[in-house]
Amino acid sequence: MSAFPVSRRTWRRTLRRLPWWLAAAALAVGCLIWIYPFLWMVSASLKTSAEVFTKGLDLLPEAPVWENYERAWVEAQFGKYLLNTVIVTVCTVVVVVARCAMAGYAIARHDFRGRKVVVGVLVATLFVPAGYTIIPLVDLSQQLGLLNSLTGVILATSGAANVAAILLYMGFFRGLPKELAESALIDGAGFATVFFRIMLPLAKPVTATVTVLTFLSTWNAFFLPLVFTFSRPDLRTVSVGMLAFVGENGTDWSGMAAAATISLLPVVALFIALQRHFVEGIAGAVKS
Amino acid sequence: MTVAVRPARVSAAGPRRPGRAPGAARSTAYVWLFLAPTVLLYGAFTVYPIVSSYLYSLTDWNGFDASPSFIGLANYREVLADPMFWNSFRLTLTFMVLAVPVQVLATLLIAIVLNSPRMPLRKLFRTALFLPVVTTTAIVGVVMQFVFDPASGPVNLALREAGLAPDGIDFLGQSSTALGTTIGVYVWKWFGITLVYWLAALQTVPNEVYEAARLDGAGAPATLRYITMPLLKPFLVIITLLSIEASLQVFDLVLTMTGGGPFYSTEVIEVYIYRWAFAATIPRLGYASAVAVLFGLFICLVGMVQLLAVRAARRTRGAA
Lengths: 288, 320
Known about the structure:
heterodimer, A: 288 residues, mainly alpha, MetI-like fold, 2 domains, flat, B: 320 residues, 12 helices, 2 strands
C-alpha cells in the first residue's frame, strides 16, 4: 500500500484515505470481537481449570498447560474421534465426487430413456433437508446392518442430498463442445475412457468446489453421526464426542477447550490454506 | 489437454443424437452404470426415507415392536392438537423472522464497505468474518455454553468488569434470553456465508459502471442509491431465500447450546422431532414422522415460493 508520506502529494493522498483507515480500524476491533470466542477457547485450552475460572478474560495463560491436550486426546478419546471423523470425511468426499460427477456426466451428455424421471426426482428433492428423513433412514440402516458402523455413516452421508453437486457437474459438462467427445470416440476411446481421461480432468474447477463443500458439510455433520453411534461411543465423530464430553465432564473447562481446539484446528487450517476455493465454492451458489 | 479439438466433424455420418448412435445399446448400459451409485445411494438414503416418512406417519410404532400398527390420520390429529407442537412451530418461525433480516441487511452493509478497492486489509477482514462459517456447528454450540456461562464465562466477566451486570446474566439458562442468544450466535456463525454471497453479487457490477457514474459527478451515496441497489435487487431475493432456507435448519446449534430448553423455550421443530423419536423413553416414531411430514411440506412450500421468486427476479434482471 502507500508508503510514508514524503511529499505533499502523497500526504494529500493519505489524508483522503483517512476515512477508509478509520473504517478499517473500526472493522479491526469488530473482527477481534468476532473471533474472540476462538481466541478464548485456545487460551482456555492452555490454562489450568482454576485459571480459567479466575482469569477468564486474560488471553495469555501464565504457563501453557499441555496436559489438557493429553487429557482430551487420550482420556476423552478425541484422538480416536478425530480419526473417525477423518475416515468418514475422506470416504464421503471420494464417494460424493465420484457419484455426482458420473451422474452429472451421464445426464448432461447422454439421452436415454428415463432421463426426465431421474432429473425430475433430483429436482423435486432439492429442498428436502436431511433432518426430516432421519427416522426411516435409521430404520433402513438397521435392517441393512449398517447402524452403529462407520460404513453406515459414510453411505448414509454420501447418499444424502447432494443434488446441488450433480447440478454443478451437469451444467459444466453440458457447456463442453460436442466435438471433444466425438473426436476421442473416433480415436477408439470408449465411454469410460472419454469420461475418465478427458471429461473428469477438464472438470477440475467443479471438482474443487464439490470437494470443498462436501468436506465442510461432512466434517461438520452432527445429526446423522449422532443417531448412528448411539450405542457405539468408540465410533463417535468429534462433533458427537464433544456433546458427550461436556455431558460427562461439565466442569472440566480446559479439557473441553482442548478437545474443541483439536476438533476445529484441521478444518480451520484447511480453510486458511484453500481459502479461495472455499469462498468461490460458496459464492457459486448465488451466481448460478 | 492432450486431445485437441478437431476442426471438422469427420465422424458425422448423418444426423445423430447422442445416445442414439451406433452402439447406442452399449452406451445406454454405460449411462446406467454411471447412474448406478447415485440411484442406489440417493434412492436408499434420500428418496426412500422421504416416501416412507409418509407411511410411518400413519402408524403407531415405538421402534422396538416387530411391525408398526396402522392408525390412519390419528397422529396428525394429535400433532395439530398439541400446544407444544405449535410452540415449536412458533419458535422456528420466530427464529427465521428475527435472524434473516439482520443477517441479510447487516452483511450487505459490510459487503459494500469490503467491496471497495480503497478499503485497506479487506481480505483479512473477510477471512475473519468468514471464519465461524467453516467451524463445526455442534462444537461451536458447546463452546458457547461456556462463553455465556453466568458465573465464569467471558461474556459475563466482561459485563461485570464494565459494571453493566454485576450479578451476571444467565443468557442460556432463562427462557427470556435463551432464544435471543441462540439467534445471536446463529447470525454470528453464518454471517460470513451471506457476506460472501453479497460480495459475489457486488462483483457482478463492472467497475466501468462506477467509473462512469463518478465521471457524471455522482457521489458515493448517489452511486449506492441509483447504481448499486437497483443492480443488486435480483440478488436480494436469492440471498434472502437462501438465508430463510438455512434458518429452518438449526438442529446442531440448538441441541448443543440449549438442548431445546430451558422449559422448551428454544425447542424448534427439529428438536421436537428429535425428542419424540430419539430422546424419549418410549420413542414414538409414527408421531415424530407425522411432525416431520408436516414440516417437510412447510419447507417445500417455502422452496416453491423461492423458485417462483427467483424466476420473477430473473425476469426483472432480464428487463433491466
